[in-house]
Structure prediction request, 309 residues.
Amino acid sequence: MNELTIFSPATIANISCGFDVLGLALDTVGDEMTIRKVSQKGVRITKIIGQNLPKETHKNVAGVAALALLAEIESNFGFEIEIDKRIKPGSGIGSSAASSAGAVWAINELLGKPFNPLDLVRFAMEGERLASGVAHADNVAPALFGGFTLVRSYEPLDIIKINTPSELFATVIHPQIEIKTSDARNILKTTVPLKDAIKQWGNVGGLISGLYTNDYELIGRSLEDYIIEPIRSILIPAFDKVKEESINTGALGCGISGSGPSIFALSKGKEIATKVAETMKLVYDKVGIEYDIHVSKVNTKGIKILEIK
Ligand code: HSE
Prediction:
């Protein structure tokens, strides 16, 4: 096996209450990447289609993540990476994470899996550091582990894969405006009032409990963010309206996907998730901003192999 073509999923980070610690992987949206083992040492990005992104290895998130992995092995060979970029950068659904995680996952497979998933998260986080200035793991972890993930601790890195209730579907609307994660982080306050922290960690516990007990009502009640959403939602046109109408349509909850501008809702069953998509479209048609919209089951596998050569 010298070459792998993979699907690397888009992800929803934060999931309302879990800023920088919670994330989930999507099934129907993601990048396709081909990673090839070659005799020439080092890492080269040989092709990028779909988006205008740097091909220089040190300026590309997939390149940087791959280099972080290769720095920990002895090798007299290298890798070429081709990226079919289907997730737009600055969309809030883990564009940089999909490229970073995909690169290190495929290289690890081609090497015969010398590294465990936690190591791969560590390497992929270097891509996130390049993209946003902060090595957050809440997008790369669900891409690599699949399903819902919790970053219990950053130092030392401790990641837990959480149960995914089988009927949980996500609806994501991506308004065609770009919000850089670094900008969306710079506007945040650095301290949290105790009364907000109490409500927030109550919800994190509630969400995790709901995911393990398949309690959809509890999941819905827990999808509230008292800390980040009130600040960031100002950057997203019609956020409050989308949230209100999605919940009126039957969504369990609704919030900002990652650092935005995408907005996500979780629903029980595909039928409600599809109705929520129609509702979101109606709101955005009135706003007059173009959008992409996705309905997806939660992807419990993470990265998937499409072709082996
Ligand atoms: N937790 C990160 C943030 C995710 O909200 O800034 C970015 O996708």
In short: The chain has a mean pLDDT of 97. The two ends are 6 Å apart (CA to CA). The longest strand covers residues 22-38. Residues 13-14, 19-20, 94, 136, 138-139, 181, 184-185, 258-259 surround L-homoserine (CB under 6 Å).
